[in-house]
Specification:
alpha/beta
Length: 274
């Protein structure tokens, strides 16, 4: 097993060659929220193009064959930097090292991004629901800051469900910063509804998102009718169990799953494998 010291730092620049079709970018900033969650921003290669909501493979230059993992891009397509929101898995092959990165360090990023959580995979609608648990919030941080989201939808409802209140910090901060954003502040005013819930620690709003959909509480909080295929489009990102449960629930309302090849009413992507 590699020691944490192998993680590249500015003083101990990578000795290993950069793999093919991979960018080597510089960490610009790192923010830690809890013992388990942090976000970071890296420089953006001029040639790197992606659609808001997509994911890309990232790694560290700490081995001949570095470990790469899928990461949702949390910054919007227009941003000059690339942002990620990450879990810290204590023995995780990537994140045991990644959680120690500092400004000036190098992060590897594969050149090709992909994914189903893109506006192109949805048919036109009026209200966009962005449903996340845990780090599944990352693609929403991208889409919520993209003007195209507000060109295509009148209203956006974003849900953020975590065990403890502290785990909601990244999402809370992102939502608070939306209105202050010079580029999209005007677009988002009065059009974004944010529903943050906890499942373990007592908070203002408690409950699993599936429970809140089933008992109608989610729609009462938003002040709208339940999912309607004429109006509502849904994106879901989180654990496999949550995806399957929410997917089954929204299918009972007549919404159909879409993809890049066949846009429809909702799309799903898991936030991690496991
Ligand atoms: C399409 C896709 C997009 C992803 N986007 C992100 C992202 O934006 N941010 C992010 O932190 N991770 C994301 N992941 C998970 C990521 O690829 C890695 O699994 C994660 O960074 C941990 O890597 P690791 O090598 O340290 O541990 P791994 O060996 O990958 O995982 C170790 C254990 O931790 C669990 N785990 C891994 N990731 C998470 C997570 N995010 N939340 C809760 N439990 C987890 C796994 O189920 C596994 O049991 C995404 C995965 C996929 C498939």
């Amino acid at each position: 097993m590699q020691s944490a010291a192998l993680a590249a730092t500015k003083s101990d620049a990578p000795e290993f060659p950069v793999p093919a079709n991979t960018y080597a970018e510089t960490v610009v900033s790192v923010t830690h929220y809890t013992d388990n969650l942090f976000s970071f921003r890296i420089t953006r290669p001029a040639a790197f193009r992606f659609r808001s909501g997509e994911f890309v493979m990232i790694g560290l230059p700490n081995a001949q064959k570095p470990v790469f993992r899928a990461y949702s891009i949390a910054s919007p397509a227009w941003d000059e930097e690339v942002e990620f929101y990450s879990i810290k898995v204590p023995d995780g092959p990537l994140t045991q090292h990644l959680q120690k990165i500092q400004p000036g360090d190098t992060v590897l990023m594969k050149q090709k991004s992909t994914g189903t959580l893109v506006l192109d995979a949805l048919k036109p609608g009026k209200r966009l629901w962005l449903v996340a648990t845990g780090t599944g919030f990352a693609p929403w941080a991208s889409l919520l800051r993209d003007p195209e989201t507000y060109e295509k939808f009148d209203e956006v409802v974003v849900t953020n469900t975590c065990r403890d209140a502290a785990d909601l910090a990244y999402g809370n901060h992102l939502i608070a910063s939306l209105h202050a954003d010079p580029l999209i502040g005007e677009l988002t005013a009065g059009r974004v509804k944010y529903i943050a819930t906890t499942t373990r620690e007592p908070s203002a709003h408690m409950g699993r998102i599936t429970t809140l959909i089933e008992n109608g509480e989610l729609f009462r909080m938003v002040g709208c009718a339940p999912f309607d295929p004429e109006i509502d489009r849904v994106m879901i990102c989180g654990s496999m169990a949550m995806l399957n449960d929410v997917k089954a629930l929204i299918e009972t309302h007549g919404l159909e799953e879409g993809s890049n090849a066949k846009p429809a009413d909702f799309v799903v992507e898991r936030a991690f494998v496991g």
